[in-house]
Amino acid sequence: MGNFLQYTLQGLAAGGFYALAALGLAIIFGVLGVVNFSHGACYMLGAVASAVLLAEFNLGFWPALLIVPILLFVFGVLMERLLVRWLLPLDPLYNFLLTFGLTLLLVDLVKKKYGVSGLPYEIPAGLDGRIGTGDISLSVYQLFACLFSLAVCLGVWALLTKTRIGMIVRAATEDADRTSALGINVRRWVTPVFGFGIALAGLAGVLRAPNGAITPEMGGSFIIILFAVVVIGGLGSILGAVVAGFLVGLVEAYGQAYAPAYAQIVIFILMALVILVRPAGLFGREEAA
Amino acid sequence: MRRRHLTAIALTSSASLALAACGGGAGGPQAGGSSKLTDDKIVIGLINDQSGVYKDVSGPNSGIAIQMAIDDYKAKYGDKAVAKTIELVQADHQNKPDVANTKSQEMYDRQNADVILDVPNSAAAIAIATQAKNKKKLYINISAGSTTLSGENCNKYMFHYAYDTAMLAKVSAKGIVDAGSKSWNIVYPDYAFGQDMNKSFAAEVKANGGTVGQSIATPFPSDNFATFITKAGEGNPQVVASMHAGGDLINFVKQFNQSALKGKTQLAVGLMFITDIHALGVEQFAGTQFTDAWYWNFDDQNRQWADKFKAKANVRPSFANAANYSAAMQYLEAVQETGTDNADEIVKNLEGKKINDMFVRNGEIRKADHKVIKDAYLAKVKTKDQVKEEWDLEQIVTTVPAAQAYGEPQASCKMGG
Fold first, then answer.
1. Smallest Cα distance from A243 to chain B, Å
2. For residue A153, what are the domain limits?
3. How many domains, chain B?
4. Do residues B280 and B390 share a domain?
5. pTM (2 decimals)?
6. Is the peptide bond preceding residue B221 cis, with omega within 30 degrees of 0?
């Protein structure tokens, strides 16, 4: 029983992080209808940027938590203005292919500059060690990453549901034409929302840096899990991303514990089951366009 | 409907991403120049990963090492050199066995390569071994570790240099069990290399009087090892051994260091390269024991060579770099002794030869399975205050003599003609 509780705790801790990492993907999809394939690459850029900030500018984890999302926001804004925007009127496949190409480009550029072996990064002081007793314990850092992720998810949710900006963005998602007919400049909001989604990917990268490998390839396997999270939760749904994040974290932890070799497959079995029962995902809405 | 449509796209994207992830990075071939070769030239081919995850382990730096061997050979024999013109051609196999296969054919047929060196990734190595056999040209494997290369996939024209999974297990398991850590749990990635390593390690731990409580397979690749590590700690083993490589190894070690096992259980790593330690920093690995085939700062002879290497490559050499130098040098020496580049003559010259050079200490090229056996080393990662200069990362715990470091030739190897 002690072990089961421990696995559950680890699953929940991982889940919080998955929720944050998938959040940007869900928002960008919800507002722009873009399946951002480069989310994994932007997550990688976030982690690499933290390592570079530390090595070149001696700026540690805490400043990185603020600086990196800002850098990625700017990157996202440029990406939307220069590239994504032009393909928005076309079939969504075009932006999917664009962001896929961008992923290859970004990964190879980072490889060229920083090599393939990975960059060093340590746990920030104060967040090392473990809390808990006996069989049930969690690393302080894991707990921090989970709680921090949850706080960000909550903040984003409040921003979208409780503020005027959120209302406009949501209205634009529902019906862009009618919203602009009411005198609101919808396009003005598209760019910052895209940048914001990319910034969230970068933030997830910073959170990952202390307890994972920082390599150009790190986003490759990770984005597969993120796609599973957003599909399970319902594309575009923030609550869905959070709930599915925890669900995937738990399923993965139990998989690792009770069927180790199938730990990743169980995530996709879950995804397949969810889509069979609810094609739009747990919290997605099926609507006629 | 739009959302349904896009759900489908997201699914497709997951699938194509999986494909992309398997495919590895992009990167063009880097074959060297036009080679209009005649028989009075020696052409050495190098095929390895020049752009992907194994780039730093061997990659273009092994090209530099081979060029050093060519220069040293010319300097040594001067006018008396049999091979007056020696060319080095290189290709990037992008970690794809089919690319390796095509590149090796191109090298043997069009670029007239006399020998191909290196080739990390056992599947790629097996493909090239088959080409070598069919074309009766030489292939010296260095970076691929599968024991099948000197077992069921062995052939007359291939030699296996440096290391294999059995050697890693023999040196590490014996060294660690002998030091008193007898109860083990093993965690390994669930693909050919990991399964091979798990089998070899479990067998060696038991052979030396230790016990293996559980062997845990993990999906490959994996980002989150937290629960695997908790599971590996069950039964309170003295040693948890990770058989992962590259990014997975870094993930595992970082997460192990944050786990409840840190400080309580000893971490052993199946295969690790100096570039891994350098990339992650000694703090994360400090105290970890592993098998090394060669270490640049082991003695003066190694260090002198490493200094020359650093002047050209700007980094310290990995064992794969040193092994490529040694293999190229031994090949050129054989050409010098036989006066020909005829593969059958060279094989005859190399078989059973005792060698002793910068890389191969107290070595022998075994006739039975063409494995090049040599002294091997049980190494320990230094702590931060022990490190005196960049790349000064390892401390050699014991030197294991060649005869004990490698398994006996396997019965499954039928050398033939």
1. 18
2. 6-110+138-218
3. 2
4. yes
5. 0.86
6. yes
User: Distance between CA atoms of B349 and B73, rounded to whole angstroms?
Assistant: 18
Contact A285 B13 (CB under 8 A): no
pLDDT (tens digit per residue) in B329-378: 999 999 999 988 999 999 999 999 999 999 999 999 999 999 999 999 99
Nearest to B13 among A35, A252, A287 (CB): A35
Q: Is residue A85 part of a domain?
A: yes
How far is it, in rounded angstroms, from Cα B168 to Cα B378? 9
Domain that holds residue B305: 41-163+299-374
Whether residues B60 and B112 share a domain: the answer is yes
Nearest to B166 by CA among B198, B211, B208: B198
Q: What does the pLDDT look like over A62-111, one tens digit per residue?
A: 999 999 999 999 999 999 999 999 998 899 899 999 999 999 999 999 99
More confident residue, B81 or B186: B186
Domain membership flag for residue B321: yes
What are B266's strand-pairing partners? B239
Specify the number of domains making up chain A.
1
A172 in a structural domain: yes
Min Cα–Cα distance to chain A from B416, Å:
39
The CA distance from B143 to B158, in Å, is 13
Q: Which burial class, exposed, middle or buried, applies to B357 when counting CB atoms under 10 A from its CB (0-12, 13-18, 19+)?
A: middle
Distance (Å, rounded) from C-alpha B140 to C-alpha B328? 9
User: How many Å apart are CA A213 and CA A101, to the nearest integer?
Assistant: 23
Note the pLDDT tens digit of each residue in A244-254. Answer: 999 999 999 99
